[in-house]
Amino acid sequence: MSNAVPPAEAKPAPFPSPSSGLSMREEFSTAVEEATAGSTGQVAAAVMDLESGQSAAAGDRHVIVTASIVKVDILAALLLQAQDAGRTLTDQERQWATVMIRASDNAAATALWDAIGGAEGLAGANQRLGLRETTPGQDGLWGLTETTAADQLRLLEAVFTDGSALTDASRAYVQQLMGGVAEDQDWGISAAVDDTDSVRLKNGWLSRSETGLWVINSIGLVEKDGRRLLVAVLSDDEPTQAAGISLVEAIADQAVSVFTTP
Length: 262
Fold this sequence. Notes:
The protein is of the alpha+beta class. It has helices spanning 24-35, 70-85, 91-102, 106-115, 118-129, 149-160, 168-178, 241-260, and strands at 42-49, 55-58, 64-65, 146-147, 200-207, 214-224, 227-238. A 5-stranded antiparallel sheet has the order 2-1-7-6-5, sandwiched between helices. A two-stranded antiparallel sheet has the order 3-4. Helix 4 (106-115) packs across helix 5.
C-alpha cells in the first residue's frame, strides 16, 4: 500500500436510502448475517460514512479482545501524552511506533505500553478520545484489552476526523503508518475495495490459549465509490486463523456494500 495520504475527493452524492425499504441498521444487520452464515463464532461490525456522518452496526455491543488492533490505541495515547508535554516523539518512540503499526511488532508495543503508563495510561487516553466500552488489559497483557466495534469506530473517528483530542499532525502520523502496513498483513477490511492504495488499516490476530480458537480483527479506513468509510470488524471463537480472516473479509465486503450500493 502507498504511504501517501490521498488527496481529498469530490463530495459524493447524498447517501442512498436502502432500496429494500429496510432501515439502514436492518439492512446492515442483514448483510452481516449473510456474511456470517454458518459461522459459530461471535462477530461485530460497525461502519461510518465520513462525509454524511451516517453509521450502522451489528453485534456492536459484543465485547471482544483487541489483539493487535490495540496498537492504534497505544499510539494515540502516546501522541496525546506528547502533545500535553509540548514535545514531539523521540527517535526511539518513532522507531517503535513504525514497527508496531506497520509490522505489528509486539516488543515495540510492549515498550510503548510501558511508556504510556500501561493500563492506567491507556484508560486515561481513552476517556479523552471518547471510548466508553474499552477495558485495558491487565498485568502488561495489552492484547487482552477488551473492546466493542462501537468503541473501535470511536477510536477511528479520533484518528480520521477533525475535532479530535489528537492534533492534525498526530492524526496524520497515525494515518500514515496505517497506510503502510507490511504486505503480508494487508488483509481484512481491504478486501472491501479493489484499489487498496487508499486503505489505512490495522489488523489483530490471536489464538486463545484456553480454547485454541482465534480472535481476528480489522479496523481502519477504506475508500469506495467516492465514499470514505471507517470500518471496524471484530470476531472471536474462529476455528483457524485463515477461517477468521476469510470471515472478517466477507463481513467487511458486505458491510461496505450497504454504504456504496445505490
